[in-house]
Fold ABC transporter permease subunit.
Amino acid sequence: MKNPFVDWDIYRQVFPTYITQGLGNTILLSLLAALIGTVFGILLGALAGSRHIVIRAVSAVYTNIMRALPAMLTIYMIGQGLPLAGIKLFGDSTYGYAAFAIGLMEAAYLGEIFRSGMQSVDRTYVESGISFGLPQWKILATIILPIGIRRIIPALANQYILIIKSTSLVYLLGLSIEQRDLFSMAKDDVGLTGSLAPLVMAGVAYMILILPLTWLVEWLNKRLNRRYGTAGGGLESNTEA
C-alpha cells in the first residue's frame, strides 16, 4: 500500500512553488496581520489601564469575546461577514480582509501582553512625567511603552510566531491563485493529487520559517533574563494555534 504522506515525485513538484510563492505570501500576510494586531493591541492595552470603568469594560468585552470564539469562526465572520454586510474596507481584496481578520483576532491576545507590560512600569516613572507637565498620551508614548515593551519582548515574539501559524486558516476566505499561502496551496494540491504529501511539504516550509524565529525568541529570553532579570515571565499568550 502506498504511503499517503511520502511521495518524492510530489515533493519535488510542489516544494519549489511553496518556497517561492506560498512562503512569501504567508510572510506578507503575517506581517500585515501583526501590524494590525499590534496597533489594536496597544490600544486595547492602554484602554485596559484607564481610570474609567466604562473604557476598561470596552477593552475587557472585546478581549473576552475574541478569546472565547473559535479562531476559524472569527476569521470567517470578519473576513466574509464584513463584505457581505456592505463594509468593504479593502474593496474586493480578499487578502486585505484575511489580514484584518487575523489582526483583530490576535489583537485580543497582544492587548493582554501590552497591558501586562504597561502595568509593570514603576509608578515613579509616570509620576516623573506628570511632574514635568507631560500629557497622558506623551507619558504613554515616551515612558510607559518603551519601558514596558522591553519587558515583554519574548511574549510578543511568541505571539507573532502564533500569528504566522494562524495564517493557515485564511483558506476559508478563498484566496486567489496568486494570493495563496502555504496551507491554501497544500490544500489545493491534496485535492489534485489525492495524496497528503503536499501537506508534509507545507509543514516543512512552515518549519523553515518558524524554527529560526523560535530559536531567536529563546535566545532573546535568555539574554534579557541575564541583563534585566525575568523578562516576559507569566505573560499570557495565545496557545490556541
